[in-house]
Amino acid sequence: MAAIFSLFSSSPFVSPCISHNTHFSFLAKAPLLHLKRPLFAKSQLASLETETSLPPAVETFWRWLFDEGIVSSKTPVRPGMVPEGLGLIAQRDISRNEVVLQVPKRFWINPDAVAASEIGKVCSGLKPWISVALFLIRERSRDESLWKHYFKILPEVTDSTIYWSEEELFELQGTQLLNTTLSVKEYVKSEFLKVEEEIILPYKKLFPFPITLDDFFWAFGMLRSRAFSRLPNENLVLIPLADLINHSTRVTTEDNAYEVKGGGLFSRDYLFSLRSPLSVKTGEQIYIQYDLNKTNAELALDYGFIEPTSERNAFTLTLGISESDPFFDDKLDVAESNGFGETAYFDIFDDRPLPPGLLPYLRLVALGGTDAFLLEALFRNTIWDHLQLPMSRDNEELLCRVVREACKSALAGYHTTIEEDEKLKGANLDRRLAMAIGVRQGEKKVLQELDRFFEEKELELNELEYYQERRLKELGLCGENGDILGDLGKFM
Predict the structure, then answer these.
(1) What's the superkingdom here (predicted)?
(2) What is the pTM of this model?
(3) Is 290 in the active site?
């Protein structure tokens, strides 16, 4: 997964922090070439004979693929102009799971390609994405580059929020996406300054042309939006032609959309094989599913689009055990024993149940007073099971109050209401403004749902069964209606 950055309101244990996870993995593809005007020039290649014209750069790119043997007259797909920009169009009826194209490894752009190039040695100690970014920038400037025709069809920017103006970013005020975007931009800038000092300027013979921060952002954006991951031994690879394929909500699985074939003695024998997850008629566009688990904010950051469905609406709740907590060490031990840490992140989705670990973690963080005996070593192997259910009224009341206060604080940070956003959505909006409205409205809906959930829990506090009552029932000292049996009731 791409790095997730989270923001939440201040409270004793709901942290207003940003998670700087600098392990970036890049997932494939995005809307590609955006043209200001159509060019009506019919292709000279039989496989591009169509009434829909293509820009000269795309026709040249297709001819290069043809000359290199990557495509032929029998290739079942071709580039085409589609609402997303460029896409892959079926030249005949295509069956579900049918292979539509194959690209040999020698045309891939990945860390192996960097290592084999002139800049391989000086880039060997860099993070993989940085070395590939430098490779992209350098190759784009070289007339003799193997990929020169590929670079000419790549966009200068996408609609990813990393390319938005200050005015456009203002429309994300209050959203977690804004904080994520600013953090990513700051991260990319810091990495550029570092690589400029350590690699670009000291090795001017290898980089004889100016490389700017904008160049670096271009390369970062191309990798973020177009690189394939989850391939065998490949976590970051650009594959010309294959990355023209667009995303669709109609595709509900990521399985078997692409794979690596071949191998043998030399890795150059590998082929990237792309399949169509759906049956497609002649002239229709081929689609895949980019990532079923990404939120709308992540789609906006990585690819520059969102989905209109509520399933992608999410808000990341960031919880933490305070170092000033007198039981910090014990709580941290319990958290780590159950797959969590000092800080935990929970993605809350629209119309979905809360993540299974959220309430136990909240109860753990809020644990104190007379409930703290459960942190003793005697209970260490069973405490997480106990935390699945309400511990005490004080504990449950505290976590409800803190989460509700955090929800209200977060909602106050937006400059519009859900109702105002709904009215705006009916207008003829700029693409980026429409994305901003969709993301902020989605976050607010999730926050309101979360607030309602804990409001309902507050109303049920007197009706809940707590640890003490459950324990007395286990010992046969408490009736089914909660009454303490025998003389023990005098002391309770």
Answers:
(1) Eukaryota
(2) 0.83
(3) yes
